[in-house]
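Hi P.,

Sorry for the delay on this. The queue was packed all week, but I finally got your sequence through. Input first:
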Amino acid sequence: MRLHVGCAMWSHRLWPGHRLPSAERLRHYGSWCDAVEGNTTFYATPARDTVESWAAQTEPGFRFVLKLPKVITHERRLTDVGEPLRAFLDAIEPLGPRAHALWIQLPGSFGPADVATLTRFLAQLPRSHRYAVEVRHPAFFTDDRATRLLEATLTAASAEWIPFDTTAFFASPPTSDAERDAWTKKPRVPLRSLALTDRPIVRYLGRDDSTRTVEGWRRWVDVTVAWLREGRSPTMFVHTPDNAEAPVLARRFHDEVRTRVPELDALPEPIPVEPLTLF
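Then the structure:
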């Protein structure tokens, strides 16, 4: 039984580990959280030696949820993507089991009429990886037929549906520059908390006010406890608009769940960052 927690990145200018050399930041982050979203892979396939360094800095049980490049999901919309897909799979091979799931984030325009394309794409993927899909078209959340169609497609491929819960964030108007920026960019879709596999993945967006972030995730504590008792192994990613306290909050989420599920393994103690000196 294990709950993994993480953030949208492993380095942030306001986190203590940011003062470390770039080649050491992931190792430090990995002592705070045991999972991370691979958002950078959306913009470009990383060099294989870069991925080798990621593997070297993390334990085998660390989880990367890696986003497929946008050329596959957004530009070619899952069609005629053999070459970029092969390049991506080759690049991430050094991660081995750390590549927990490949994340297929689809554009908001990808709707129920496109599910057949998704079905064909999932069928061509190698079984050596797990896959998780994030959709943003509102019909998948509000139209029962569209919901069932997508669930059937994902279940047939043993793929997970990643919810991005922004309901707490959009519950009241923004109060900071970071919140105002996120207000125009983050998706507004209804809450979804149904797992399709034994390894559900959740993305949760809170507020810059940590108290409100914690209040907003109460339902996810309940859901996560239930998943663990069912024998599932979930991963929770905690976001806030500025992400300043994201690693601390992710650990707090884990602690809250562990209070209810005492047999859950504790997270490791964070590696201290030694103060910089002149000598």
